[in-house]
Each structure stands twice: as C-alpha cells, then as structure tokens.
Amino acid sequence: MDIFVDIKEIMKKINDVGKECYLVGGFVRDSLLMKENHDYDFCTNIPFNELKKIFPDLVVMKENDHRNTAVIMRNNKEFEFTLFKGNDLYEDLFHRDFTINSIAVDANGKIFDPFGGVNDINKKILRNVNDNCFDEDPLRILRCIRFASKYNFEINEKTVQLMLQKKHLLNCIAPERVYSELQKILISPNVSYYFNKYRDIFFEIIPELKECYNFNQHNDYHIYDVYNHTLSVIENSPPNYYVKLAALFHDIGKPRSFTIDDKGIGHFYGHAKRSLEIFEKFSKKYKIDNKTHDIVADLILFHEDELSIKNSKIFKFYKKYKMEYVELLFDLKLADIKGQNPKYINRIEKIKELKNKYLEIRKNYNEINYSGSNLVQKGITGKNIGMILENIKFQIINNQLKNNINDIDSYVNKFIEQQDDIKKHM
C-alpha cells in the first residue's frame, strides 16, 4: 500500500529505536476504498515519554474510552498515536470494532490483516472482530449503522444479532456520545432505510418512537402509519440537520393525542405540543446544545400552523417565530406533505407560493433603511427604540409607509408629537 512521506518518516523514526509503529484506522480503510481521509492514526508500543524524545512537540491527552493518545503536527497535518491495546499488534487489532477498521500498515507499506478486513471491504460487508465488541464500547452499535449508510455496506447477520442483543447497553454510556453518533446518522444517505431496518435499536434511544410503529392514523390524508410517515418526512427533508431532527420528532406525540370521531376519522389535536414535550425530554437527556434545541423546538411546535398570505399576519407570525429560520419551517412543511397521501400533493404548490411570499417579506424586513441610531438622535431611548422600529417595519411591509429615510423620519416625528400631546394631557 502506498503511503506518503510524512507517514513513512514518522514510523521509520520509531522503528529506528527498536519499537513498532503502524498506520491504522480510517485512513487505511478509506485508502483501500479509494476515498479521501485525513485522520492519521498510529498504534505503537513505544511509551509516550520515550516518544517525546523523538518528537519534542508531542502532546499527550485522553480520549473517550480512556486510552491515552498523543498528537504531533507536521505540515499542518495532525498525527495521533495510541499505545497497543494488549501486548502486540494482533491484540490491538482484535480489540477494534469492525474488520474493515482492523487493518494495519507498516513503514514499508506492508498490510497486516489478521481478521479479513480487506476481503470484507471488497465484499462490502461490516463485521465485528470479536464477540465482546459491543460490550467494550456500546457506541459501536450506532457506528456500525453509520458505516453501513456511509459506505453502502451490508451488516453481517451475526453482527446484527449481536447488536440487537446488546442494544440496551446504549443506555450505559455518556448520552452526549450517543447523540453525536445519532447526528451523523440522521444526515447520512438513505437514513429512513436504516431507521426502518434497525428500528429496535433506535427505539432503545427514543422509546416513544415505538408507539408510532404500526399506529394507524385513520385519516385520508395519510397512507402510512405514524412511524413510516415520519421516515418519509425525514427522507424528503433537505440535508439540513435541524430539519432532519425536527422531522424525527414532529409527529412523535400523535399516538398520545389520538382521538377518533363517529365517522371513524382519526384526529390528533394538540399533537405538536405533545411532540414538543417528548423532544424536550430527549433534549434534556442527551444534552442538546441550546441553538439546536431552540430551532428544532420551534420547527416542531409550528409545523402544523396554518400560514396566511396576508402581509399583516405574516408579520405577526415573524414576531413569534425566528425570521432567519423560516425557510427551514417551509422545508419541513413540504417534506411533511410529501410523506402523506399523494392525492393531496397539490398542496405543495400552495406551500411553495407561501414560502416565496414569506421570503419576500423577510427580505423587505431586513432591508429597511432606518436603525436604532436614527431614533437615538431624536432623543428616543430604552424600549421605545425597539417598539418604534417594529412599527416602522410593520407599516412598510403593509405598504403603508415608503422605505426611504425622509418618509420614515416624518412618520417618527408624528409619533413623537403624538407622545408629547399625550404627556401634556396627562
């Protein structure tokens, strides 16, 4: 296997002092797949205090699995070292997750592949190296699904069975690690396929999803149960993580808000709020960052709102919904419709028309030729600045005021005169 000069020099320097060093991990795997990878990982048997004598800039740190790692920089590239897990290279590779990641290369480009990783790469198969694979790190269950999606590999059936047996262990590791892996899966190719095929694993992470599976909606707008509708919405969403996560949770509260009328038609009054409650619980457990939480929470809460084409109502909507994320809301709405009964697909055109209108309003809103500094020059202070600016924007958006500084100045001057008159008569 061809390896470039920096890698070869690093390994040779370690070999020159009588120690072993091998290139391992993602770089080796992706090189064999003819894909780019800039993660340069070495495993070695040289203690880090001795390694620092060879590379004085070596920095030692700890990783999630509590294995010591050390890092050096060369030509703006980061090279990472770990000590053998076990007594030698074989034991180190034995304790790695999958055969495709248990391949090592020495300084001469010679490949060491004791578990058939190269063959599995050629056959596009994901297979665990040892039966304690998921006990050693349960996160590997989700990593396996992500690799399958990323590389379009099939997971070996014995590996699948082991994943299902050990799925409960996902509750025994740091929630942040689980969430980080879930993030990557949600924006992977064909995510709905994997959420369906390995649903029991995802039910372990989000138990409320299980309630959605096979839940008949009893409504002409829907041809899928709640779970498969959800997967369809995820699949039809753009490659934006906020929209994908909102799609996953947008209807999760439906089974808990279901009613059926005397005509046999199902209704889900208030399901957006129920869905939001479930998302809040998930968000707290998995420690989602504030920005993601706020955006996704609003997408879930507002995804069912009927939107008006009237300028005044659009402006009021913008006052309660974050203007910069309105495109995401429309993306979710469009994906939601695409996941419903095709005979109502004509609603998409209405949503697209509304989207264009809302984006036009947002553009006008952001291009208003007046600011708080103009008001300060007129002696206006405090909360009045924000209130007057909002009124100016409302008047302009509703075509009741021209967007030029002279007309806006006249409007503000009249406002000030009215306020002065009110004070005189108090």
List the helices and strands and how they pair.
Layout: H1 5-15, E1 21-24, H2 26-32, E2 40-44, H3 48-54, E3 59-62, E4 68-74, E5 77-83, H4 89-94, E6 104-105, E7 111-112, H5 117-123, E8 125-126, H6 133-136, H7 140-151, E9 154-155, H8 157-166, H9 175-186, H10 191-197, H11 199-205, H12 208-212, H13 226-236, H14 241-249, E10 259-260, E11 266-267, H15 271-285, H16 290-302, H17 311-320, H18 326-338, H19 347-366, H20 372-377, H21 383-397, H22 405-424
Parallel strand pairs: 2-5, 8-9
Antiparallel strand pairs: 1-2, 1-6, 3-4, 4-5, 6-7, 10-11
Helix pairs in contact: 7-9, 10-13, 13-14, 13-18, 14-16, 14-18, 15-16, 18-19
Short description, anyone?
By secondary structure, the protein is an alpha+beta fold.
